[in-house]
Amino acid sequence: MNVVVSTLNAKYIHTCLALRYLKSYAEPEFPIQMKEYTIKDPVMNIVSDLYSLKPDVIGFSCYIWNIEQTLPIISMLKKVLPQVKIILGGPEVSYDVSYWMERTNDIDFIVVGEGEETFKHLLAELQGEQKYHLVFGLAYRSRTGETIVNPPRPKLDLTTLPSPFRFNEDLEDLSKRIVYIETSRGCPFSCQFCLSSIEVGVRYFDIEQMKKEILFLIANGAKLIKFVDRTFNIKRDYALEMFQFLIDHHQGCVFQFEITADIMRPEVIEFLNEHAPEGIFRFEIGVQSTNDFTNELVKRKQNFSKLSRTVTLVREGKKITQHLDLIAGLPEEDYDSFKKTFNDVYDLEPEELQLGFLKMLRGTGVRLQAEKHDYVFMDHAPYEILSNNVLSFSDMVRIKQVEDILEKYWNAHRMDQTIKYLTSYTFPTPFDFFQQFGTYWEEQGWSKIGHQLEDLFQRLHQFLVEQSVQDIEIIESLMKYDFFIHHKYKPRKVWWNSSLDKSERAKLLHAVSESPTLISESFAQLGLREQELHKHVMLDRVVFDLDTYFDTGVVLRKPTYLFVYFDPTETKALPFTSSQMI
């Protein structure tokens, strides 16, 4: 029996852990081929590739991001391979099972919930007596076409699962893709917008075995390992032991975790701030809302003051990158309440702030109680909300505009100093800046056209000028600084009209070559000749002392030259300032 398991990942760099568990558990009794594609791959290409394998059985792992792209593939496969058995599994089809079986007759089976044991048992029945009623955790069709859903299967003992990481076909690309790993399954919390709330309790893999798996992955070139545990730090001793292990054996690999910040003890953070090498850990923290009533409605227990303490301590330690999540559209959180949530979390200064929108996932509490809050949402995945009783569709469109600018200007880190100044001093709140600029962006029609780095600066500048903001010269100076430092090589042009003509620039560079300490001692130590200055340095005037501002936050108005050396050996920009030559 020729068996293939497949899925459509969101991007090429992603991998599907579920396929690897299915394969490792089914073999050696049932050899399995794994085939991964992306949601952007043409349907014909995928079908042609799967057809060439001449499969008897194909199993697809289904999620909200790929289900609508998977169904056309199944339909076409059934046309060209009418005898092939199609099995679906994954979180997207594990709830409302009858809906999926009725939506298309091309689905033969659905594996409900945890799939390893059920999938293997199904393969045995397909090859044997076809007694599908004996397969717990399976939905199938009777001979009359009726959908039958068997009782659920008891949870696996995770310590009995074989390794999903030892396949030769994976090793070549380990360094090019994200490796997903789990040390536990389940979640201790009951957030009603999340599928994890449906599974009661948390089960753990053997920690010593997980250490062996991680060492194997690192030894074979893994560069980014993402832990998909719902709450990695729920058991403090377990988390600390694993953190210490990763610190001792990381070899430059980066590790990402989902943590619950308000239960993390200060001593754990102190340990990480003292011992963790900079940049090897990334924390993803779901805040979602700071509205207590909203959190109560979705059964989410959260102490925002403790969460803020954790995020602040981690940020001050400068060792760990933080990614904070928000969800717009939760019950009874209107536009003004969400604005407060956004500002509360933005003020924590995370490296990334993801603004997401509530998705009414099948099986979740918010979907089951959708009528209570007048939810209107998309009929098909990703089931994103369009409105509810306190948030109109117009409000949702406006928040979408905030998200767009947040991604382009903050999360992309293209002009950090400028955005920090604008959100701290120029606009009433951070949300006001992102909203006003986002609305302006949409009105200009810029969402319909592409943009280069220079465009982002020019468009922000145009917006600020038309808004007649105060201290535009200060902002322009910061924009010049941000523009320069985000280039690895000397840019061919700038987006503004330089205040220096060629002759003045030449005189300045000559003076600097003669007396480099006019800039600074550290600049002088570079030992640059005049020819190298002309080739690798950009300079312009700014209206205040940048160094003082970066050190103290004080804006000291004083004409200053900004020198930026683009080091060709290190491919990075080195900024220097001087007011001595004015």
Automatic annotation (TrEMBL):
Keyword tags: Iron, Iron-sulfur, Lyase, Metal-binding, S-adenosyl-L-methionine
SUPFAM superfamilies: Cobalamin (vitamin B12)-binding domain (SSF52242), Radical SAM enzymes (SSF102114)
UniProt-listed PROSITE patterns: B12_BINDING, RADICAL_SAM
Record bears the keyword Chloroplast: no
Matches recorded under CDD domains: radical_SAM_B12_BD
UniProt key word RNA-binding: no
Cofactor(s) recorded in Swiss-Prot or TrEMBL: [4Fe-4S] cluster
Residues covered by the B12-binding domain: 1-133
Known EC number: 4.-.-.-
Domain Radical SAM core residues, every copy: 173-412
Leading EC class: lyase
SMART domains reported in the protein's UniProt record: Elp3
GO molecular function: lyase activity
Coiled coil regions in record: none
Protein name (Swiss-Prot/TrEMBL): Anaerobic magnesium-protoporphyrin IX monomethyl ester cyclase
